[in-house]
Write a structure and sequence with these properties.
By secondary structure, this protein is α+β, with helices and mostly antiparallel strands. Helices cover about 15% and strands about 45% of the residues. It has one domain (about 1-125).
Length: about 130
Amino acid sequence: MMQILVAMLALATSAGMQWEGNYTAQSKWDTGDVEIHRTRYNQLRVNLSVVAKDGCNGDLEFLAPMPKLAQLYLRPDQREPFLAREDSDHCSITLYHVGDTLIVNEHDCSQEHGSACAFEGRYHRVK
C-alpha cells in the first residue's frame, strides 16, 4: 500500500514539473510568452503575455490547481480553471502540454489583448 502511495505522489509531482517553465512564441507580427511556476500551495501560477509590433498587447495571470492531464482550461472572469464548455461566451484559454511545447488556444479573448494580436499559438520551452 505504501509503495502505491509513493508512486502516485511521484507521478503527481512529475506531472506538475512538466508544466513548469518559461515558453515563448514568435511570429513576424507578435511575440508571446507563457510563464508557469509552482506555488508553495502546489498550484500553478500561469502568466500569458503578447506584444505585437503595431502596439497591440495584453497579459493574463491565473492561479490553477495542479493539472492531472496534459490540458488546462482557464477563464479570466473566474481566474480559476473549470471544465471546458464550448458554448461559453466568455474569454477562455486552453493550454495543451506536449513535451517542451505548449499549444495555446483562445476563445473570445480580443478584449484582453486587442484585435491585432492573440495569445494563441505554439510556445516552446526556453532552456
